[in-house]
Amino acid sequence: MAAYIIAEMEITDPETYERYRAQTPGVIERYGGRFIVRGGRAETLEGDRQPGRLVVIEFSDATAARRFYDSPEYREIIGLRQQASQGRLILVEGHPPQA
């Protein structure tokens, strides 16, 4: 079953975050992931909370997503994200959208 890492971030240090953002695609690809959503405009349809930067990364399963998150390559750059933003990352299992 596919798994997704969903991130909602408030960027507090754009320069440092850009350094992090530039390094993530190669690591994500190395562990079999692909971006579904990477930033872009978000609109709240219900509720009163406006989301920050949203990112959704798809993996083949939760094990692959954890391999990415726990990898030495990601561990090297995770501090940049944590220093430059506040937010949360969620791992969720689900079926990919049907074409």
Question: How would you describe the overall organization of this protein?
Answer:
The chain has 99 residues and is an alpha+beta fold. It has a single domain, classed as Alpha-Beta Plaits, CATH 3.30.70.100. The protein is 39% helix and 30% strand. Strands 2-3-1-4 form a 4-stranded antiparallel β-sheet. Helix 1 (14-30) packs antiparallel against helix 3 (72-84).
Care to give the gist of this entry?
The protein is an alpha+beta fold and 99 residues long. The protein is built from 3 helices and 4 strands. The longest helix has 17 residues, at 14-30.
Q: What would you say the CATH architecture is?
A: 2-Layer Sandwich
- Average of per-residue pLDDT values: 93
Strand and helix order:
EHEEHHE
Which structural category fits the helices and strands?
A: alpha+beta
Number of strand elements: 4
Strand order of the main beta sheet, please? 2-3-1-4
Estimated share of beta-strand residues: 25-35%
Cα Rg = 14 Å
CATH topology: Alpha-Beta Plaits
Largest sheet: 4 strands, antiparallel
Total number of helices: 3
Helix content: 25-40%
The domain count comes to 1
- Ends apart, CA distance between termini: 16 Å
Task: Look at the structure and give the CATH class.
Answer: Alpha Beta
